[in-house]
Amino acid sequence: MGSDAAGTRRLTGAQILVEYLVRQGVPYAVGIPGHGCWNLTDVLLDHADQIQTIQVMHEQSAVHVADAYFRVTGRPLLAFTSIGPGQTNTVVGMATAYADSTAVMLMTGSAHTYMRGHGLFQEVERRHVADNPRIFEPVVKEWWQPSRVDELPFVLHRAWNQMLSGRPGPVLLDLPMDVQAEAADVVIPDPDAREARHGPRAAGQDVERAAGLLRTARQPVIVAGGGVMLAAAWAELTTLAERLGAPVVTTWQGKGAIDETHELNAWSIGDTASTCGNELAASADVLLAVGCRFTDWSASSWRKGVTFSIPPARLIHLDIDPREIGKNYPVEVALLGDAKATLEDLLEALGPATVGHYRSSAYFEEIHAKKAAWEELKRKKERSSLTPMTQARAIFEIQQATGPDAIVVTGAGLPQSIVKQNWVTRLPRTHITSGGFSTMGFTVPGAIGAALGQPGRQVIGIAGDGDFLQTVQELAAAELLGIPVVFVVLNNSGWMSIKGGQRAFFGRTAKTDFVRRDGSLYSPDYRAVGEAFGLHAEQVDHPDAVRPAVERALAHGGPALVAVNVGREAEHALDKTGWWDAPVPEFHPEQYASQLAGRAEEQHR
Predict the structure, then answer these.
(1) Using N-to-C axis directions, what is the helix angle for 59-73 and 443-453, rounded to 10°?
(2) In this structure, are residues 5 and 187 in contact, taking their beta carbons and an 8 Å threshold?
């Protein structure tokens, strides 16, 4: 039986926090020092051999770094900020982590307990004293604001458990400055005695029902969501696919749940996805969804027959969060439990099967034919010789420069969708993207976090120019760290994903191009920007030059930037394969009628 550390020690609040993090094996604390957290940064000096403090240039980025680190390792970091504006700058990062169920612990400074409500510098107090953390309520699993130093040990193990148990997510510790500074006699909690180590399994009778349904399925499809990554269930999922002869289709966060060179990989689903993934999922008679929320972006706004048809398809929904089961589609069998443990039980219930038995089936031939048609379609853009080049060609050339275990990071915009469509992901936790919140500005700090989490691996952050400009200042953080991460900027002088959507939904565009007052296109000199920050930087204009430029950047051994000029037309960038319900006003009659017709076929209501 575990027990807490022997002996009472007199420690300040900041010391308690840092020593608890050391006990949890946290290697980095990421943030910006300020008066609200300088007790913490002072204590971190005494533990520099155990926890390295990482400087960023904007607080949003501190959370993105920690978020991406968790996505590639499954282990949380601490992000920290001062009180007030530094604190509120992290909201978009916390919302990103919350939407994608990633674990981040954020510590923010808070008003001294004995000054609360007096309008302390940077205190929000007009409705409630020290009210700053309420801004975070919709985007954290839970938040704490302890008033005494001796509360901290209890709060910390509660916060850690909440962050990692069940469906992971970010938590907030709003720590008053006097609580950080003052001392108490405390015992640091022992993780072995305070934490669950294994997730729950689905009920046995439900597993048997699911197995029975899958045995009789003629066209089963497995839908892999982010829960597969969170539970490290990719091996069990691939084995189950082979046992059933079922194709695996993936959501944004599920990409990499199966090696995408595997013959049963059927690529992605949703609005900006693959034709084969959508067609196979829509024609399935039984669907097994694992850790999948069925969002509008992955379910084509629930329009029947585009990505899913539920019913008539019968759905087995495996998830650790009961709120997701039945939320958007009715279920035939609900499996409430940890993905890895429950897939193990499902494999046992199904029993053994002959290796490769599915290859002789007509269904496998259909899977192969649909995949071949999709791969031929996407090949047109990824092998295009157009100049300026297609983004698909740029991404194809970038991947040719990398190894099979390279990590690719994307934020919002066309590169996010085109990487989903075109990048061949071989291993789990190597495709990192701000999926559910689709956050612009994620790519640069996210790539830094991924490089910190997987030293020795190639890390490529692929950003559109709009995404890149939102957190360009973090090139300084990369240079300070000296980490070998490559940032690729696909430059087309505007918000081209939005331009394409405006054109499709309204027939005209507004404020999506970066233009000067004289009408000429505007773009910074990204190579000069990279060089100004101290990075190895290159500019590329021809598709044949992309691969060698990325190879040189990877060989540089430190942070590097490759700016690539790409075409500006959305139709040359993205194969839009699904459906998305974006309301249109009546004064655009053609588009309005089209949207109403599609909306009438949605199944979520």
Answers:
(1) 40
(2) yes
* Residue listed under structure tokens 């690529």: 267
- Cβ neighbors of 603 (< 8 A, separation 6 or more) are 302, 303, 304, 308, 309, 310, 329
Report, as ranges of residue numbers, the positions in the chain whose pLDDT lies below 70. 1-6, 355, 570-571
Amino acid at site 288: L
Name the CA radius of gyration of the chain, rounded.
25
Residues 411, 433 contacting (CB under 8 angstroms): yes
Backbone angles phi, psi at 528, to 5 degrees: -65, -35
Contact assessment for residue 513 and residue 499, using Cβ atoms and an 8 Å cutoff: yes
Output the six-digit token pair for 127.
């409705």
Write down the residue that tokens 């939904």 correspond to: 505
- Indicate the residue type of 214: L
pLDDT at 1: 40
Dmax over CA atoms of the chain, in Å, equals 76
Integer CA distances (angstroms), 559 to 29, 444, 446, 485, in order: 20, 11, 14, 5
The kind and range of the H/E element at 186 are strand 183-186
Residue 445's identity, in one-letter code, is P
Residue 287 and residue 313 in contact, taking contact as beta carbons nearer than 8 Å: yes
Residue with tokens 């027959």: 305
Task: Specify whether the CB–CB gap between 441 and 494 falls below 8 A.
Answer: no
Sequence spans of domains, the chain: 9-194, 204-372, 383-572
User: How many residues are given for the chain?
Assistant: 605
Residue linked to tokens 């689903």: 269
> For residues 383 and 390, what is the distance between their CA atoms, to the nearest angstrom?
9
Nearest-angstrom CA–CA distance, 420 and 255: 8
* pTM of the entire predicted model: 0.96
Q: Quick one: which H or E segment has residue 540?
A: strand 536-540
State whether residue 432 is helix, strand or coil: strand
User: Quick one: pLDDT at residue 6?
Assistant: 59
What's the topology of domain 383-572? Rossmann fold (3.40.50)
Q: What is the pLDDT of residues 367-394, one digit of tens each?
A: 999 999 999 999 999 999 999 999 999 9
In sequence order, what are the residues at sequence separation of 6 or more whose Cβ sits closer than 8 angstroms to the Cβ of residue 520? none
What is the architecture, at CATH level 2, of domain 9-194? 3-Layer(aba) Sandwich (3.40)
**Right CATH for 204-372 from 3.40.190.10, 3.30.230.10, 3.40.50.2300, 3.40.50.1220:** 3.40.50.1220
Residue 512, number of CB atoms within 10 A of its CB: 19
Tokens of 149: 């130093």
**Closest Cα partner for 570 from 511, 499, 507, 502?**
499
Residues 478 and 485: their CA atoms lie apart, in Å, by 8
Strand extents, DSSP E, 225-376: 248-250, 265-268, 286-290, 314-319, 333-336
